Amino acid sequence: MISSNEYGSHSWELLLTVDHQHEEVQKEFLLRVAGDLHIGGLMLKLVEQIKISQDWSDYAFWWEQKKCWLLKTHWTLDKYGVQADAKLFFTTQHKMLRLRLPNMKTVRLKVSFSSVVFRAVSDICKILNIRRSEELSLLKQSEDALKKKKKKDKNSKEPFTEDILNLCNSPVSSGLSGSPGLYSKTMIPTYDPVSGTPASSTITWFSDSPLTEQNCNILAFSYPNCSPEMLAEMYQPRTLADKAKLNAGWLDSSRSLMEQDVVEDDQLLLRFKYYTFFDLNPKYDAVRINQIYEQARWAILLEEIDCTEEEMLIFAALQAYHVSKLSLSSEAQDFTCESEADEVEAALSNLEVTLEGGNSSNILEDITDIPKLADNLRLVRPRKLSLKAIKPYWFVFKDTSISYFKNQESAQGEPIEKLNLKGCEVVPDVNVAAKKFGIKLLIPVADGMNEVYLRCDNENQYAQWMAACVLASKGKTMADSSYHPEVHKILSFLKMKNWTMSSQTVSDPESTDMKPECFVSLRYTKKYKSKQLVARILEAHQNVSQMTLVEAKLRFIQAWQSLPEFGLSYYIVRFKGSKKDDVLGVSYNRLIRIDIATGDPITTWRFSNMKQWNVNWEIRQVAIEFDQNVSIAFTCRSADCKIIHEYIGGYIFLSTRSKDQNETLDEDLFHKLTGGQE
């Protein structure tokens, strides 16, 4: 027997496995340790035993059974709770990861597997030169998408080789945090705001970054990388339940990749998770704008978001234009920038707009007088057992309410009805070709949503009333500075749709080398012949042909943001007290309960009315309290409830951003709002 004094009364043997590439050296070591040994001392003891001369600074202990990193080197084994049965893996913290970007390009780079996902995404975005990393996150592909991919690979005669952009020499590969990003070196524009190419004044910056000039072009430009066959083989959600599956795979931002079963060389999707794109600037955001554009493009092509035929043709025209512009190498590869005088003038102009908040000539008038709208409109109320009743009335829009009267003369008396639009859903009901300009209002009432349609006579009337309704739904009046820009945005979108009124001649579809199947979803390729689609896309193309490259992308993003379903992430939930499942739509400013069978909104709750929210982790139930003693509770059926909890907290966190923050984020506040108390 060996006396206890020989080894110490509290020592034991601990099995450690080392992750290294030297085949001739053993990988498992049995060390005798005591509970008061700190992690740093254990590392030193192990490295002395390994006897391999190399840099071990990026290595740390991973506790396999507990799925956690032992990163606090001053903590003792006792404090961590490590005992003789623990299996500790001594491995690198930074490992290779394949990321599929919104433009469907795959990049391979080293990422921290020990940092929380929020910080890892921040480092990834610095390498890719994408500002506002808090808007993005990492997503695991849905099971249905993976099944379709395996089926495609099985059926393909030739082995598919993915074109991967290798960014292995990124700053994080050495275990250091990511570079500060090209955009933060100075306030000189990084990109030409017209073409999106690296500006001549900053082109040398790319030489010391893994994002070389060539790689930057791959990320900042769109290339026709989609064939009709490829589109047909990709997973397309058919129902709300299918759309809910797409959002089930978001990683937990408060935990590391290793803690979430991600292994080296796995493939994840890098996507914009939060649809609040803050401070988009073509001079610094060429990659970011292009990736947002690509995420929007694929969402429309794969019908992850619904749009009308008219809208689909606008999107197709912007894409077709975009690709044809890129084929003109003199345009796409022109790295010449504006003259210095022009840059200074543009910068001063931008600064002026930023400081003034746009045209503010009527500031005093706005403060003292809240504008109102008054006009003849038609009211449509759907009836279940008869045709829709359409009647003309005199409407008055003031504050956040609409009142309507029998005629203008009776407007001094009591209205027939007053509709309070605060918290309502506003949906466009427009067909420009048919001269239909409608506004669908879903107004919250005690037992659900009251459905009302307003019909306008022309574009200008529609834009004014639609903008007023959108602002009122957010609790804002027409005195708000965003009213006139909203009117202008609506009018510009209507103008893009109004191609039938153009006097320009349309190019001959026969002579156009265009594959329309690449620009519209499968529904429309089945509905129309190729020649018909080309002709219609060319008609729509007339209204966008004068735009610059970056402007075309921004218009596409703006049109995407105008769609009724924009920014909604769906989850299947079961509300407390209900016997059937519903769909919950999470947006940047509200939650919507939706009937899973019909897709109709049942109730809307605004974040602005929310008092508090929490999670009962034992029964995985999210509970939310709103003003006026309204409270809801639900369990999530299609994903972990932590994902919805993080979505709500994340949107509230993003609403606190301001331009004077110098792009620094309060990470502690993010985790406080999204982490929960699990």
Automatic annotation (TrEMBL):
GO terms of molecular function: integrin binding
Residue ranges of coiled coil: none
GO cellular component, as recorded: cell projection; focal adhesion
Tagged with keyword Cell wall biogenesis/degradation: no
Principal cellular location given in the protein's record: other
Entries under SMART domains matching the protein: B41 (SM00295), PH (SM00233)
Subcellular location: Cell junction; Cell projection
Boundaries of every PH domain copy: 378-474
UniProt entry keywords in alphabetical sequence: Cell adhesion, Cell junction, Cell projection
GO biological process: cell-matrix adhesion; integrin-mediated signaling pathway
Keyword Zinc listed: no
PANTHER family membership: FERMITIN 2-RELATED, FERMITIN FAMILY HOMOLOG 1
Similarity comment: family membership: Belongs to the kindlin family.
Protein name: FERM1 protein
Organism, scientific name: Geococcyx californianus (Greater roadrunner)
